[in-house]
Request: fold
Amino acid sequence: MRSLLFVPADSGKKLDKAMGSGADGVIIDLEDSITAEKKAEARKSAFDFLKDASKAASRPQLLVRINGLETGMTDDDLAAIVPGRPDIIVFPKAEGGASVIHLDAKLNAQEAIADLPEGAIKVLAQGVESAMGIFKAGDFRDCSKRLIGMTWGPEDLSSELGAEANRDENGHLTEPYRFARSVCLYGAAVAKVPAIETVYVDFRNSEGLRRDTQDARRDGFTGRLAIHPAQVPVINEVFAPTQAEIAKAKAVVAAFAAHPGAGAVGLDGKMYDRPHLARAQRLLAGLGK
Reply:
């Protein structure tokens, strides 16, 4: 998934608009965008939306961001929305594999109650949103077959640290948050799941979003969270491989196929080794080619 668009669970009009935004995934948010007194109503709205939207023949992936384990609201969230058959749960403040195992057990129970196959609902872990999350980020490997990706969040982290800001006057992440971003990349690599870049909060700054997203793709992220529909086309464009990139990937794969067992091959005057082959294969696999 290239683009994942956050929408408050209690905003029916925004949810309907998000379905036509072009986003690869729509995240129905029960966490930060919903105040405590509106949680129950938002859960019902989320279920009603899922029940209808999941039936569409052509639709984005449907995700729900629940409230984290530390809030005491996770069970109520899952009981309300699992019967609506979301594709993925976005798990905030996930702190290592043990926390995903905990969530996995809760999902097993709720899937059984809702007569869903065990493991039907996957998990996208927001694994670097707290100081503890940084230290636990390398601990997600083999924790659950549900885990399909990792992302991070500087907003909660900067609040915990008592920071005045997480970006400088030019919009660049400051050092503590560049470090957290890198930790997410490494943690996802250890877990062998895609890394999803965090939100770019200046949603009116499309050029800033483009530059920041290009940096994310360069560094290894495969998609990005969005907070406004206007961000979706930019994110999709940046994460979509160009025809030249597709052609190069096919050429690398073909070169290795022509020399079975080779550790490196020559192509257009350059040497390509096995990591280049793996990267080319991943790109083509993402296209279904």
Q: What stands out?
A: The chain has eleven helices and ten strands.
